[in-house]
Amino acid sequence: MNNYLYNISSGNPRSLWPSAWSSLVEGMIRLIPAILIIDVFNTIYVSFADPATPLNITRLWISSLILIIWLLPQFISSVVAYNRSFLAAYQVSADGRIKLAEHIRKLSLGFLGSRDPAELTNMMLSDYALVEQGVSHHVPQMVSSIVFPVLAFAGLLFVNWQMAVAMFLALPLAVLIVWATDRFQEKLSKNHIEAKNVAASRLQEYLRGIREIKAHNMGGERFERLRRSFEELMRHSIRIEGLMGPILMAAIVLIRSGLPIMIFFGTYLVIDGQLTLPVFLMFLLVGVRVFEPMTVLLTSYGELRYGAFSAKRVMAIMKEKPLSGDREVPAHKDIIFDQVTFSYQDDEQVLRNISFTIPANKITALVGPSGSGKSTITKLIARFWDIQSGEIRIGEEVLSKADPEKLLRHISMVFQDVYLFKDTILNNICVGKQNATREEIEEAARKAQCHDFIMSLPQGYDTMVGEGGSTLSGGEKQRISIARALLKDADIILLDEATASLDPENEQAVQAAINALVVNKTVVIIAHRLKTIKEADQIIVLDQGQLVQQGSHDQLVEKDGVYARLWQLQQEAEGWSVQ
Ligand SMILES: Nc1ncnc2c1ncn2[C@@H]1O[C@H](COP(=O)(O)OP(=O)(O)OP(=O)(O)O)[C@@H](O)[C@H]1O
């Protein structure tokens, strides 16, 4: 149970206290009518059993007056309990979602790459919705449902212990059933949650890939995958309800069996003279009221368990260790790869014992066949992953000890596939520097050759961009990302195939933007077309994760090696055309 509360409160069970306390007070206030009804019953019975005793009308008036006055504290305590539980629920889930998003940002891309984005989305939305439900409904319901049975049992023990025991005789068995099926429910919940994730993932894939699905006429096959995932989800939903339902019902029936057990024992005790009729009737009256909160308790517990299993998945991610390190890296220093070996997966080495220096404030180009490890080098400089052996240093500072956030302040990255947020162009450029002024943003956009095209848009800088930048051309997105980098003004610039897929006009504009960006910076540029990096200060040629050549363009074309061959091939390809 402790575990459930720990998980459901995102590791902070104390946040549940205010709502639990107010539910407890509310539950106690709700006891008052039950006590009064017993008293009213007694008052009537006394005069009914002995006609010589007059009916105590004053007592009945007082009881009804107390019941009317009781409505006010009952109303106040319900409102307070309701507000506190909802406040706690939204606070716990909002805090949890923010913490999770913050934590995910700090995890290595290696970890995130191994997780399905749809699963993380689902975690943020559905899992936390269950947490909300647990905190707002199930925890307070359980607390207030526990008050009446516990106090009733304690009180009734003094009246007649045999009857009190009879009332709760089947309770241990009901609790045992619920406890014994805990593992079983965990398994069913886990499968159900997994099926939900798969369905969400398939749906996301289907909607995101709708262009490819139409272009390649894959509707049937992709839709089939989606349909199968929904059917699987339906099967798991039926299984969890179909199997857990009867178990829960059995526990509820056992609790309710307290009533016939009481009647059975009570009749025997009355006949035996050990129980008076009014006390017997009082037990039946209380019994009927006691079983209701107990069934609510059981149902809420089942729901809480399901929510807690969802929350457990969130907690597992929260326990993943983020990249460690607190050192600041120095600006404008050489980047040194010293006998670096790296693999994404355990077995396959992508970089093998590789050593080279990227001189500060110079342009270094990375060249080599597809899959030789060029992009990997840029990602390692940004510490998206940590290496397995060797050392990467910036100046004297070892990268694995650097604070990842501080390190990224030194780096601007321009990728081939630029991602723009569904926001205004202005805010998309601002990503480079959150507190930039309008003048700074426009200045960066001018240098990045995108001011004119932005101004030609209907709302200029305030034009909304579709998710992922779907409403802009490749070249336009590219220039906006360069404007971001210009605004950030970091001392290390990583350019990954920035002009590869552009038409000549766009390429020229982007090239001019890049020229503005790289002045006085440490630049690492990846380019397949060698003519774009002819002027680089240093060219590093990679093949299968190893450094095979290093030098300037002129030095490398002179030598008989990979670079000279690639250069030759590209020169010949310039003359090709489709016949
Ligand atoms: N996230 C990843 N997980 C697992 N393997 C990866 C990952 N990213 C890249 N790889 C593998 O690492 C190797 C090097 O990839 P990398 O992207 O660094 O090559 P590249 O030289 O930049 O290739 P290209 O010119 O085609 O972009 C490839 O075999 C690739 O399949």
TrEMBL record:
<dbReference type="InterPro" id="IPR003593">
    <property type="entry name" value="AAA+_ATPase"/>
</dbReference>
<feature type="transmembrane region" description="Helical">
    <location>
        <begin position="146"/>
        <end position="179"/>
    </location>
</feature>
<dbReference type="InterPro" id="IPR017871">
    <property type="entry name" value="ABC_transporter-like_CS"/>
</dbReference>
<dbReference type="InterPro" id="IPR039421">
    <property type="entry name" value="Type_1_exporter"/>
</dbReference>
<keyword id="KW-0472">Membrane</keyword>
<keyword id="KW-0812">Transmembrane</keyword>
<dbReference type="InterPro" id="IPR003439">
    <property type="entry name" value="ABC_transporter-like_ATP-bd"/>
</dbReference>
<dbReference type="InterPro" id="IPR036640">
    <property type="entry name" value="ABC1_TM_sf"/>
</dbReference>
<feature type="transmembrane region" description="Helical">
    <location>
        <begin position="27"/>
        <end position="48"/>
    </location>
</feature>
<feature type="domain" description="ABC transmembrane type-1">
    <location>
        <begin position="22"/>
        <end position="304"/>
    </location>
</feature>
<feature type="domain" description="ABC transporter">
    <location>
        <begin position="335"/>
        <end position="569"/>
    </location>
</feature>
<dbReference type="InterPro" id="IPR027417">
    <property type="entry name" value="P-loop_NTPase"/>
</dbReference>
<feature type="transmembrane region" description="Helical">
    <location>
        <begin position="243"/>
        <end position="271"/>
    </location>
</feature>
<keyword id="KW-0547">Nucleotide-binding</keyword>
<dbReference type="InterPro" id="IPR011527">
    <property type="entry name" value="ABC1_TM_dom"/>
</dbReference>
<dbReference type="Pfam" id="PF00005">
    <property type="entry name" value="ABC_tran"/>
</dbReference>
<protein>
    <submittedName>
        <fullName>ABC transporter ATP-binding protein</fullName>
    </submittedName>
</protein>
<keyword id="KW-1133">Transmembrane helix</keyword>
<feature type="transmembrane region" description="Helical">
    <location>
        <begin position="60"/>
        <end position="82"/>
    </location>
</feature>
<feature type="transmembrane region" description="Helical">
    <location>
        <begin position="277"/>
        <end position="298"/>
    </location>
</feature>
<keyword id="KW-0067">ATP-binding</keyword>
<dbReference type="Pfam" id="PF00664">
    <property type="entry name" value="ABC_membrane"/>
</dbReference>
<dbReference type="GO" id="GO:0005524">
    <property type="term" value="F:ATP binding"/>
</dbReference>
